[in-house]
Amino acid sequence: MTTLVYKAKLSGPFTLFKAGEFIGEPGWQHNLTNNKNGDYEIMVVTKGTIYLDINHTKFAVQEGDCILVPPFVTHFGFKATETTTKHYWIHFLLNTNEIEKYNKNEKFTRQHYNEIFLPQLFKISEINKIIVLTKQLLDSAEIPNNLLQCNYLLTALLIELSNQYLKNATQQATDKSSQRMEQICNWIKLHAYENITVAQVADKFNISSVYLTRLFQKYQQQSTLDYIHNEKITLSQELLLTTSKSIKEISYQLGFTNDKYFMRLFKKLTNMTPTQYRNTYTKEYVNNNTRNPDIPFTQELNHLDEI
């Protein structure tokens, strides 16, 4: 099955329509519905697998997948879920008529830098970044009269999804060094919860620490240690927003032996303390099998149309 990829001009922020997080009990199926308001919808699955029929095409959307539902298309759950599922759902309007199906054989050039690419289904490579951006968006969506900020946060999220897709789609292993770099980065992501050091990473791949850092400077434009720290802080942002664990517990879970050092590093990379970060993004709309979402931004959208 060939996955469709949609391309849209990025001439300004897109418009958030409604959004939330859905928690489905085992046996849940998506209702038969149609996005009749002209809105697109993305779903990011963070737990379990959901089964969707979109315009007569069946998809098993697994944990870590992102799926896009175009407007005016009938979609429903064709199979009940086996386990508890969680997914973020975001409806949005594209402020452009210039959206088209993308020819994946087309070479990516500088002219594409003002466009976003949204595949109908793809595996998110850095799910932690997407979760953090989504939590920020959902928090802002709960604040009255906050549509403009939400639109920019939505656009940042879509750009990140597009960037991750393009990176995966266009990444070509042109030499052995780039192949090894990809393996090293994946290993660090997998072991970011451990107290890993630059020397340990170098030993794992039978190279010197100096050569390892040279690879990171060439392919990631940062040192090995900076890359490890950034991965850990990204994970900590997700834990701060999705769990009630204390800062000390989170720091130890991520392999830090000193929670004070973790807090200093967090502030250095995010310009706020872990507590400030957690308190900044605390709200979100959650619905489940028995609570259906309303349309929180309808009145604001109507007001904007009248201006």
From TrEMBL:
It comes from the Bacteria. Signal peptide: none annotated. Residues 182-280 form the HTH araC/xylS-type domain. One of its GO terms (molecular function) is DNA-binding transcription factor activity. InterPro entries: AraC-bd (IPR003313), Homeodomain-like_sf (IPR009057), HTH-like (IPR037923), HTH_AraC (IPR018060), HTH_AraC-typ_CS (IPR018062), RmlC-like_jellyroll (IPR014710), Tscrpt_reg_AraC-type_HTH (IPR020449). PANTHER family: ARAC-FAMILY TRANSCRIPTIONAL REGULATOR (PTHR43280), HTH-TYPE TRANSCRIPTIONAL REGULATOR EXSA (PTHR43280:SF2). This is AraC-type DNA-binding protein. It comes from Weissella bombi.
